[in-house]
Specification:
The chain has two domains: 132 residues, abc type-2 transporter like fold, CATH 3.40.1710; 192 residues, no CATH class. 63% of the residues lie in helices and 8% in strands. A five-stranded mixed β-sheet has the order 2-1-3-4-5, with helices on both faces. Helix 8 packs antiparallel against helix 10 and helix 8 runs parallel beside helix 11. The longest helix has 32 residues.
Length: 386
């Protein structure tokens, strides 16, 4: 009985200690609540748009007006342009500037009038094994819509009645579709999510290492030694960046190599670009970690901020759901997270074998620069010599 009383006494003591730290309570309760609330309000349950380019040859017999197709091709397809030549549209697809290219065959109308269905090629590039199964489904809906429009126009102009030998299949559905995914490697669900998991783990490792650094030294009095030592804050911070950066890069290299060996994760792109991306992710994440360390008064606060960053990264970085599923306001959270850009770029270099988008590297560099300057400014008071 006495043991039970002592247990409850210690429990009451811990609850009292928590109540004495209002900032701790606020962070523990309000932080996750605000993140989940922002995700719930920012998530758009509708299907994200699929951006497409049309290729309509000159001799197809079809109208060359983009608005004509925009009216009759239903969502989620969004027609961004119309081309007469397939090469230019396919080049944009390879460069990642569009998601789908819809190619009508030459002599489309002539083929239909002669009693043959015209086959429309729908070429896309989709790594996600789940999303790649949606495009053929939406393609069928788009082709059905265009078939209805063609039949309606033909009947109203009596053109279908000119050839009474047309089969019922051609009359009802003059267009057919053939879909093709041109990704060089179609990953399994596990392989597809591995780059996202690697990026998330490396960001969390770097942020956790850096967020404890200055807080711990402030608590043990090491900052006081820096004030009297012949060393400046720039040298201290740079040394910490270098030390933690080397550790994180080694972990990242070992992690990726292990996934290649044990799970068959491919590397279709450049090793140099992969190394550059890992470095950019590491140092931008360290920047956020040092900023957390600069504003935290204790190690417990640093842990809380690090965990909140991890929670936000899971929901807003594209790891859990595509960023396109978020509204424009919720996406601002995505833009300040290094892992958002790293997930996209790691998939490009590992699974697609294409060059990393320069804007992603610029974004990671901007995060590193802004957080480093902010941390240096906040820590300036601690490093001032008295």
């Amino acid at each position: 009985m006495r043991a039970l009383v002592r247990i409850f006494s210690f429990a009451a003591k811990e609850i009292t200690d928590i109540k004495r730290q209002p900032r701790l309570v606020l962070t523990l309760i309000m932080g996750p609540f605000l993140i989940l609330l922002a995700f719930g309000l920012g998530y758009n349950s509708t299907q994200p748009p699929i951006h497409a380019l049309l290729v309509v040859p000159e001799n197809s017999g079809l109208p060359g007006n983009q608005q004509e197709y925009t009216r009759h091709i239903p969502p989620p397809f969004v027609i961004d342009g119309l081309y007469r030549n397939a090469e230019e549209a396919l080049a944009k697809l390879q460069a990642g500037q569009t998601e789908v290219v819809i190619i009508f065959p030459e002599d489309t109308m002539q083929s239909i009038r002669s009693g043959h269905r015209a086959t429309v090629q729908v070429i896309y590039r989709e790594l996600d094994p789940i999303a790649s199964s949606w495009i053929p489904y939406f393609t069928r809906a788009a082709i059905d819509s265009m078939n209805r429009q063609l039949v309606t126009q033909a009947i109203s102009s009596t053109r279908l009645l000119e050839n009474t030998s047309l089969s019922p299949q051609v009359i009802v559905a003059p267009l057919d579709a053939k879909t093709r995914n041109i990704v060089p490697y179609q990953p399994s669900v596990v392989i597809y999510y591995l780059p996202s998991a690697i990026a998330l783990l490396l960001q969390h490792l770097a942020i956790t290492l850096a967020s404890f650094s200055l807080v711990r030294e402030r608590l043990i009095g090491a900052i006081e030694l820096f004030r009297v030592a012949p060393v400046g804050r720039t040298e201290v911070i740079t040394g910490k960046y270098l030390g933690y950066g080397i550790v994180t890069l080694i972990v990242g290299t070992v992690l990726i190599a292990s996934m290649m060996y044990f799970l068959g994760l491919p590397l279709l792109g450049s090793v140099y670009e992969l190394a550059m991306l890992l470095a950019a992710l590491t140092f931008s994440s360290l920047g956020i970690g040092f900023f957390i360390s600069a504003i935290s008064k204790s190690e417990s606060q640093a842990v809380q901020f690090s965990m909140l960053t991890l929670l936000a990264s899971i929901f807003f970085s594209g790891f859990f759901l595509p960023i396109e599923s978020l509204n424009e306001y919720a996406r601002w959270v995505s833009y300040i997270l290094p892992v958002t850009y790293a997930i996209d770029s790691l998939k490009e270099v590992l699974l697609l074998g294409i060059h990393i988008k320069e804007e992603n590297l610029y974004a990671l560099g901007a995060i590193f620069l802004i957080t480093t300057l902010a941390s240096s400014f906040i820590l300036g008071r601690d490093f001032k010599r008295k």
